[in-house]
Amino acid sequence: MARFASLSTSPCVRWVALAAAILVSVVEVPAVQCQLRFAAIGNWGFDVSGQKEVAETLKKAAAEQRISFLVSPGSNFPNGVSGANDTKWEESFENVYSDENGSLKMPFLTVLGAEDWSGNYTAMRERTDLVYGEGSEADLVSNSPKWTLPNWWYHYAVHFAATTGSAFISSGHKDMSVGMVFVDTWVLSSAFPFGNVTEKAWKDLERTLEIAPKVFDYIIVVGNRPVYSSGSSKGDSTLQYYLQPLLKKAGVDAYISGYDRDMEVIEDDDISYINCGTGSLSGGSALVKASGSKFFSGDKGFCLFEMSAEGLVTKFINGENGETLYEHKQPLKNRPERSTIDQFNYLTDMPEVTYFPVPEMGKLPGKDVFVRVVGTIGLCILTFLGTLGIATGISRAMK
After folding, report:
1. Residues 157-195: pLDDT tens digits?
2. Topology classification of domain 4-366
3. From which residue to which does the signal peptide run (predicted)?
4. 163 forms bridges with which residues in the sheet?
5. Beta pairing partners, 255
6. Eight-class DSSP state of 76
């Protein structure tokens, strides 16, 4: 049976961590006025000067907009980290995102990306124990964001009170809930070297998305690689084939990624595919935009999400000056299967979030598996064509 831990004492916003045994302590989450706001930032650890610039803008937004938590869709540290106490934690995370006011002292929910997996990935999971575990060091939890990675994949439920009046009529209930589902896109890949881990990840994800529409008003999925993209990756065909149908069936509101170095929103099958990948470095322009692309920018920045009983608003924020580059709105979805009576029973049926160890597999290059495989295939093709050309030349010379 799943376990629950409350992460807020606010009457307006209450956090519930689904089956995360490590989060048994109370976390101070800022209250919001009948709305839930969080920010997403990816590719944030690749340039300290640019990272600090965006971080200062993020701190101001957190104070003004009363952000409740942060989301990082992977690509956290270049070449990963060497251990749970690597100096990168202090230099590229704590020193950058902390201040005397504790502006970003809130849960920092993350997944791993290709760069993270190339280092000591187990240490990135263990860092969570240092922050939330018994006897956690004071300097790790003072004014810094609280690094949160209970497992390679996991989920959380967030509750907030909606306004009355027309909002109450449209939603059918005043207390609203958000299901945050975090996936590791490499673990989900058939190229991942440990099939039992991949199988477990897919099984838990399918079960989570099966139950989610029955208990949540909003369903947000977070992963490193984008499903669709106008950026450098051009999306991921494997995710399009296997993951997208699950997202559609569950009525997911948004899928947040951070792999490509850009900010973009693509609409497809009533789902918003949002990439937030310029947390430290700016990216280039899109020569050809993907179908359904509504906004694309290579500017440094982050995404600000606001949920209410009316709908979801996503703002793309310029990391240099705090200006809103684009605002994307989508209405609250009608979920006829949503049950308030049996909500607790459904929640207890969600897969329990427990750490699933991954064996040591050696240091991996920063590039993702797909690029490595395609590059190898391309090299084989070129070698074959070159050999064929030489053979043809010899054949002609012998005639």
Report:
1. 999 987 655 545 555 556 899 999 999 999 999 999 999
2. Purple Acid Phosphatase; chain A, domain 2 (3.60.21)
3. 1-34
4. none
5. 221, 273
6. -
